[in-house]
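Intended use. Records like the one below are meant for learning the mapping from a protein sequence to its folded structure. Do not use them to infer anything beyond what is encoded.
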Amino acid sequence: MTAPLLLASILAAVLLQLAVATGLLVLRLARIRTSPGETEDNKAAVPESGAWTGWRDFFIERDVFEDPSRAQRSLHLRPVDDKPLPAFLPGQYLTFSLDVASPGTGAKRSLVRCYSLSDQPNPKTYRISVKRVPAPPGRMNLPPGAASTFLHDTVKVGDILKVKAPAGQFVLDVQSDVPAVFIAGGVGVTPMISMISWSLTHQPARRLSLFYGVDGSVDHAFKADLSQLAAIHPALQLVVVYRLPGPCDVEGEDFQQSGLIDLALLRRILPHGRHVFYVCGPPAMMAALIQGLAEWGIAKSDIHFESFGPPSFGDVRVAGKNTAFWGSKALDIRFQMSRRTISWTGEDLNLLAFSERHSIPVEAGCRTGNCGSCETRIISGDVRYEHQPNFRVAAGSCLLCVVTPVSNLVLEA
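Structure written out for the chain above:
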């Protein structure tokens, strides 16, 4: 081969390698490019499985009020990038970053809140259901819930919300066929609708019982949907309990029982044998039922619960004390910005519940270590995590919702 031919062959080989490398680079950039609905400040990495990390933009496709009082609003959310949505475990929630105007000043502040997915997985849309939170009874000087008011009064169909991927540990055991009992108070029914819908579709022979407590017909959310499910699926037993039935509420038609959901009702209606219990509702209901189920002899592994709203999980405990701490010396917890020092004696499950019980202002979202809303800097002292959080905590800080103190503490809050 002559020198010119050899040089031409080498040059051709080099050009071919450059073309292949360029093609691979273009393909790689195409796969990781920012989705059409995202900005450089709000990238959501979307792996091939469909799950994502960080914030992803969703627009409100439609909304529905679920109760006669229009206090519970469902939002159907579709991703702006229109890519398929990942499946989630029935019972999980979505985390939202909401830009809410402060009363009076109008200045925007970012609130992180978590809302249960209220339907079974759908590759095109997600649904959440949000209850309007009024000012506490007898405390009309206090403002109503900022996030729920924003989602009821400000956002509208077509608006875009920033959302994190489904998360949460209060989920249906989809591998089990043990009869499941769902006990819901008010808006606590939302994760259970997801669980029940999934189970009726994928486990049609599994026996399910839903005990659903509300004040009366005006607060009765998802009434038609739940009645239809019970009528179609004989495996589902529906027991609606009205605390204060109105003059037009008909027992046996609108509801099956008046009063409160209690252990006596469960023992009277449930058949003998093993059941697994899922409980979600306001703290007072939770405290009574969790204690009652334990005293009934239900195994701890068969009791799953999730509370909502302050106070936190600290009010829902079988033992009444943080048993990991009980009997130890009291610890001093100093809240630097609030200028208060309070003794920790183990009466609360975590430092978030402790803070709320003593009226220390702390932001809170998921209450399970996933959203990072309650991240607080530790000035001095040590804490213990009850479980490893999913949120990546900054060095020198902690998540109040999943920690307890192991020494005297000084916190920035």
